[in-house]
Amino acid sequence: MRKKTCILREMDTDITKKESFVALFDILGFSNLLKNNELDKVAETYIKAKRDFEDYVSHINALLQKDAVTFRIFSDTFLIYTSEISDTSFQALLAACDFLFLAALENELPIRGATAIGELIVSNGIEIGKPIVEAYENENKQDWIGCWITDQCMARINKEKHLTGKDIVEYEIPLKDGEVKKMYAFNWIKSLTKKIMLEKRKKDFNTDEIKKEIKFFRKQPSDWKVKRIYDNTNKFIDFVLSPEFVKIYKSSTL
Q1: Fewer C-beta within 10 Å: the chain N or C terminus?
Q2: SS3 string of 166-229?
Q3: CA 33, CA 36: separation in Å to the nearest integer?
């Protein structure tokens, strides 16, 4: 029997192995979205969100003058991964997550995600690797709208820089099994405060302005599972809009 590496080499000379940071997100309630709305309307919203995010990723790569992050979409799943493991590449990943949350908020699409780190095999739009599976499994464990940053990722970056700047926070993330576990979470609300301050050209905002921008909360929860997700998410929002956090946001340079 020939070795798998030989088979891969024969199949595709463009196969690349790389160690990457990975982030994977799913749209929550996507099947219900399809069932309860006209297909054309869902497609229009979905395509707009995809287009917005692709533009953002291109902007990140243009700023860094290299393909620092790659974006893929499979039905209701968004995959982002970096070209290497470094502080710069992780910062690019967080920037992509920033933009994904903003695009999702703008298009009223609640999302949930998780990160991972490890080796990927990449070839012609095909991505295979253990970190993709790990990110999917961790995403599916959570019971809120948010993103879990794993300990393995935190161990490979300048952790204190991100914690001090409140890009990442220690938080008791709610899990589907009822457990609440203190882990690291991506602070997507900070992105929203930056957006509002830039749009209004000021270094100030109030918490009501932030909450009005979270458009999917305008819809009444369809069942108790959705209500629980919304309640868990609102607790996180209140946590990262406490005076300690707001002071950091408002001191950021525009």
Answers
A1: N
A2: CCEEEEEEEECCCCEEEEEEECHHHHHHHHHHHHHCCCCCCHHHHHHCCHHHHCCCCCHHHHHH
A3: 5
What single-letter amino acid sits at 138?
A: N
Whether pTM exceeds 0.70: yes
Could you give phi then psi for residue 62, rounded to 5 degrees? -65, -40
The Cα–Cα gap between 60 and 239 comes to 29
Instruction: Give the confidence band of 31 by pLDDT, cuts at 50, 70, 90.
Output: low
Tell the residue number behind the tokens 């692709």, with chain if given.
Answer: 54
Cβ atoms within 10 Å, residue 59: 13
In the numeric block, the tokens 């497609």 are attached to 43
Q: pLDDT of 69-110, one tens digit each?
A: 898 888 789 999 999 999 999 999 999 999 889 888 888 888
CB 117 within 8 A of CB 156: yes
pLDDT, tens digit, for every residue of 40-67? 777 777 787 778 777 777 877 787 777 8
Three-state secondary-structure class, residue 180 = strand
Q: What is the pLDDT of residue 250?
A: 82
3 state DSSP class of 26? strand
**Of the given ranges (114-128, 175-189, 198-212), which has the lowest mean pLDDT?**
198-212
Look-up: residue for tokens 């458009």? 215
d(CA 14, CA 69): 18
Q: Kindly write down the DSSP assignment for every residue of 16-71, as one continuous string.
A: EEEEEEEEEEEETTHHHHHHHS-HHHHHHHHHHHHHHHHHHHHHHHHHHTS--EEE
Give the Cα separation of 245 and 165 in Å (integer).
9
CA distance 186 to 165: 12
